[in-house]
Design brief:
- The protein has about 525 residues and is of the alpha/beta class.
- The chain contains 16 helices and 20 strands.
- An eight-stranded mixed barrel has the order 12-13-15-16-17-18-19-20. The protein has a six-stranded antiparallel beta sheet with strand order 3-2-1-6-5-4. Strands 9-8-7-11-10 form a five-stranded antiparallel beta sheet, with helices on one face.
- The protein is rod-shaped.
- Bound molecules: ligand C2E and calcium ion (CA) (2 copies).
- One calcium ion binds next to strand 17.
Length: about 525
């Protein structure tokens, strides 16, 4: 409803802006989704890596500790060097302690000792096959938190191995893998947590917010929390930028397309500039021999978006938009470009029919344009016939002057579409035409409507009396051709003889053995 009150230009602006905004929003949100998805996949893969690494690490460690179990029944002095060596070869292990009846009696770091395990780690549950604790430090490294693991001897509840492990392992792998993707991680064992942010033990309740991912290591009371911003400000910036760029582009493109659509004048001028116009040639044959006597040039427009636009439509548009002069100018240039090739396949004296719109005929540039065109064509080869409709003859005096000038310059004139306008017969006596082109409406009525034949008869009789050559347009059947020939029509043109052809097809037809240049059998 609103658009009715707006000017077309404002309408175009509004539509383009709307399209731009919609595309911007779409592109921006798609980008947000893509970033979100890829970040989420990255977090999944990090947490998976951590899980695999730690599961593998602890299962190796457990195996080592199972191997150490027999040492629990030995004297510390005898096995301490062995124990020290084992600790040295186990990655991240600070110390192994051998525990007999709840008392730690041998350390891989300090040798023989005699301390009840409950005293060392108050809350460790030695009745469990495997238990774990986080420690604020160990005797040798009191300021560095450690992870402690207990592996019970399968044969005796109070015997087993205790190990302290450096906690720097996980952050190390993570940080080295993807530095800026996450902000911190935390290890959580029962009711204590160790975060890379504080490096001292805290209550898991005091950990900041929800982790973005977490994993429980299989068979152990150990959890790993991964913290990251699910969204970074640079992601927002990037999505915004992409949205703005896409929106601007879409807005510009729609502005351009809509302007063209609403401005046929610009579209035609752009079409000329971008070579969207081309020409086709339709042979005209002598009625008695069916040999080619000339061609009519017909213009075509292949628009990149709208496709083929019929000449009736764009010629009309060009006239109303006052661009018929540049368009015909372009047409003449296209013909001049083809002229050397046409000269090779058409004998000297061949007629070259050009459609001239009334608006161009009366334009100031007309005479210059034609003189220039004649100069650009091969000398003394073509007889240029200007096809002009009755519409061009409304201004009698002006038309008469132009016709005289054309004849002086050696151009011939055909009255086109004869019989479609009013008072046609008057024109025939008033102007000096060389050819009369009978409209295809008459031709197509031959054999179907007996009523039209007398009209056509009258026209042909008058033409003969005025010594006008006649060309029948739109000959589609041999019956029509036969009738026209019998009634003394001089030239024939139509699909029965040949459709309008692009230059290459015209050349190919010329090169064929049985073609209209020699036989004119209507097989084309
Ligand atoms: P026109 O001057 O009467 O051109 C003849 C039209 O009849 C052409 O249509 C041609 O393709 C068509 N035609 C030829 N033989 C047959 C046939 O056997 N059966 C039927 N049904 N049609 C046949 P086209 O090319 O679509 O052109 C339509 C009109 O556009 C032309 O009518 C002419 O008035 C105009 N036009 C075409 N090119 C130009 C041009 O370069 N300048 C100007 N001012 N007008 C042009
Ligand atoms: Ca014509
Ligand atoms: Ca015609």
């Amino acid at each position: 409803m609103l658009t009715r009150y707006l000017s077309p230009r404002r309408n175009i602006w509004l539509t383009s802006i709307l399209i731009g905004v919609i595309v911007a929003l779409l592109a921006g949100s798609i980008q947000v989704m893509v970033i979100y998805h890829s970040r989420s996949e990255r977090f999944d893969s990090i947490i998976d890596n951590v899980n695999v690494y730690l599961t593998e690490y602890f299962s190796q460690l457990e195996k080592t500790m199972v191997g150490l179990q027999p040492l629990v029944n030995q004297k510390c002095e005898n096995i301490v060097s062995d124990l020290t060596a084992r600790a040295a070869f186990s990655p991240n292990v600070r110390a192994f302690l051998l525990v007999k009846e709840g008392v730690a009696f041998c350390s891989s770091a300090t040798g023989p000792m005699n301390t009840p395990l409950v005293q060392l780690i108050p809350h460790l549950d030695t009745r469990k096959a495997v238990d774990m604790r986080l420690l604020p430090g160990t005797p040798m490294m009191p300021d560095n938190a450690a992870l402690a693991m207990w592996v019970r001897n399968p044969h005796d509840d109070n015997d087993g191995i205790f190990v302290s492990i450096n906690t720097n392992l996980t952050p190390y792998i993570l940080y080295s893998a993807r530095q800026n993707d996450f902000s911190s991680i935390a290890l959580v064992v029962n009711d204590t947590a160790l975060s890379t942010l504080t490096n001292r033990l805290i209550d898991p309740q005091n950990l900041r917010a929800e982790p973005i991912r977490q994993v429980q290591i299989k068979g152990l009371p150990l959890k790993v929390y991964l913290y990251a911003n699910s969204w970074l400000s640079e992601n927002t910036l990037f999505s915004l930028l992409l949205g703005v760029v896409c929106g601007l582009l879409a807005g510009l493109v729609s502005y351009y397309v809509l302007t063209l659509k609403s401005d046929p004048r610009k579209a035609i001028l752009l079409g000329i500039k971008n070579n969207q116009f081309y020409v086709v040639y339709q042979p005209v044959v002598k009625a008695d021999t069916l040999r080619i006597s000339g061609i009519e040039v017909l213009m075509r427009w292949r628009h990149p978006v709208a496709g083929e636009i019929p000449p009736d439509v764009f010629i009309n548009l060009a006239e109303t938009q006052q661009v018929i002069v540049p368009l015909t100018h372009h047409l003449l240039a296209l013909i001049a470009r083809d002229a050397p090739a046409l000269q090779k396949i058409l004998p000297a004296g061949s007629k070259l029919g050009l459609n001239i719109s009334p608006a161009h005929l009366h334009a100031d540039e007309f005479q210059d344009d034609l003189q220039q065109f004649a100069a650009s064509m091969p000398a003394n080869h073509f007889n240029v016939v200007l096809e002009i409709t009755e519409r061009a003859m409304i201004d009698k005096n002006k038309s008469l002057a132009i016709f005289d000038w054309l004849h002086e310059q050696g151009f011939e004139i055909a009255i086109d579409d004869f019989g479609t306008g009013h008072s046609a017969l008057i024109y025939l006596e008033r102007y000096k035409f060389d050819y009369l082109k009978i409209d295809r409406g008459f031709v197509q009525a031959i054999g179907t409507e007996t009523v039209t034949s007398p009209v056509l008869d009258a026209v042909l009789t008058l033409s003969r009396r005025l010594q006008l050559m006649t060309v029948a347009e739109g000959v589609e059947t041999p019956e029509q051709a036969e009738w026209l020939r019998k009634h003394g029509v001089n030239f024939l043109q139509g699909y029965w003889l040949s459709r309008p052809l692009p230059l290459e097809a015209l050349i190919a037809a010329h090169d064929e053995p049985a073609n209209y240049f020699s036989a004119g059998n209507g097989s084309l």
